[in-house]
Design brief:
Blueprint lengths: L12 H5 L8 H26 L5 E3 L14 E5 L16 H7 L2 E2 L2 E2 L2 E4 L10 E9 L32 E5 L7 H4 L10 E9 L4 H4 L27 E5 L5 E3 L2
């Protein structure tokens, strides 16, 4: 009869370790989380270094810039002084100048800008196209698109005309009137401009908007609006910068 080897048999490795031995140490989870957070921070710092604006991304909540910027899009913005186009004024090329030089952004002449309406940083910023540059006291009625001034037949009947100060006249691509006619904002001073839109990422903005219950992202776009009388409107559609306050558009 052969030797008894029953006492020499060892349990399988999994039996020796038991269920607790298979658990992943907390240090591994912490390391993975730290790596992910670090990667996000590095990407954010890179985008800030490129754009010069924080936050560099804004989510669009309204349709005033459609079809060139849609509700739910994410827009990358850049400091207007970084890479200005030809004949830029304070880093911004107006649609008027863009038409003459062939400079276009988002399929139309001129720059799309994000700005604080009436310079009020507590209000949601607006993202609309810079249409004209006007000087302090200028009668700019003769330079306007007649379809974008409502019922005004002269400067005297046109809101913000003569210009109360130098700055930009703005308008959403999908809107029927200038922001300075509807009351979205007075003439936009250069100091109120946050930056210019560079590129849009379709539908990515919904990721930012869903947690807040917002209907959609909108950076300076608004629905078509009628001609309003003097005074400020405060019923703008908002655009939300990623990780910051909203950026609104007038509708």
């Amino acid at each position: 009869m052969g030797p008894d080897t029953s006492t020499d048999r060892t349990p399988a490795e999994s039996e020796q370790r038991g269920p607790k031995a298979d658990a992943v140490p907390w240090s591994v989870y912490l390391r993975d989380v730290g790596t992910s957070v670090g990667a996000v921070v590095l990407v954010g710092l890179f985008l800030f270094a490129v754009s010069g604006v924080w936050p560099p991304l804004v989510a669009i909540e309204s349709g005033s810039m459609e079809p060139h910027i849609d509700t739910g899009d994410m827009v990358f913005i850049m400091d207007e002084g970084r890479f200005p186009g030809p004949d830029a004024r304070h880093g911004v090329v107006t649609a008027e100048r863009g038409t003459e030089t062939g400079y276009r952004t988002f399929d139309r002449p001129g720059d799309v800008i994000v700005f604080a309406p009436n310079g009020n940083e507590r209000r949601t910023p607006v993202i609309h196209r810079a249409m004209l540059w006007v000087e302090d006291g200028e009668n700019w009625y003769d330079r306007v698109d007649a379809d974008a001034v409502g019922s005004a037949d002269s400067c005297r009947e046109l809101r913000n005309c003569p210009a109360p100060h130098s700055g930009f006249v703005t308008k959403g691509d999908n809107n029927g009137a200038y922001d300075q006619v509807t009351g979205t904002s007075t003439v936009v001073r250069p100091a109120w401009v946050v930056g210019t839109g560079v590129v849009r990422i379709p539908r990515l903005g919904f990721v930012r908007l869903w947690p807040t219950g917002a209907g959609g992202p909108s950076v300076g776009s608004a629905a078509e609006t009628p001609d309003f009388g003097p005074g400020d409107r405060d019923d703008q559609t908002a655009t939300r910068p990623v990780g910051a306050a909203n950026v609104t558009t007038e509708g």
